[in-house]
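Deliverable D2.4 — example input (structure tokens):
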């Protein structure tokens, strides 16, 4: 029985490591892509891999929402916005500038996060409360003080951003 639990734990750890590596690979792809459309596809890949991590953290609902909202809606919106606003293929190519300040900032952030993770108490020893059921989550989400209004406002802002991007890139004579 203990061996089965250990094997299950190791399989979950392997899956977690695969998804974490996919997220890191996607982040590298976004940063190193010269073509902005390819960068958007790498961003979409990161959203899907993040959903996989949520699934293995026993948050299936959050994983589905991650796929639908970020993988589906936001990813497609970003790709469509890029494709609508590009006038030629040459505009899709961006220079790969290297910034020493960005590298220093990224390394400082990594060091800070590594220090925080390594010095924090282990979560395994703490008793975590039970996950809320889907019906409870739905009531909380759509209550007057819930998260549905901010979610709808965010979708309106994304729509306005898309319309503004199309308007901004149109020719002056048309």
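Example output (designed residues):
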């Amino acid at each position: 029985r203990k061996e089965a639990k250990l094997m299950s734990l190791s399989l979950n750890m392997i899956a977690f490591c695969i998804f974490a590596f996919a997220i890191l690979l996607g982040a590298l792809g976004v940063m190193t892509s010269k073509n902005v459309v390819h960068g958007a596809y790498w961003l979409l890949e990161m959203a899907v891999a993040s959903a996989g991590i949520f699934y293995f953290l026993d948050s299936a609902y959050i994983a589905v929402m991650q796929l639908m909202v970020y993988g589906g809606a936001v990813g497609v919106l970003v790709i469509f916005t890029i494709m609508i606003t590009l006038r030629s293929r040459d505009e899709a190519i961006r220079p790969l500038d290297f910034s020493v300040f960005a590298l220093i900032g990224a390394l400082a952030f990594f060091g800070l996060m590594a220090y925080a993770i390594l010095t924090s108490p282990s979560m395994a020893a703490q008793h975590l409360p039970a996950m809320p059921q889907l019906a409870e989550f739905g009531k909380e989400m759509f209550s007057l003080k819930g998260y549905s209004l901010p979610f709808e406002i965010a979708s309106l802002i994304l729509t306005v951003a898309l319309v503004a991007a199309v308007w901004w890139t149109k020719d002056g004579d048309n």
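The first helix runs from residue 2 to 32.
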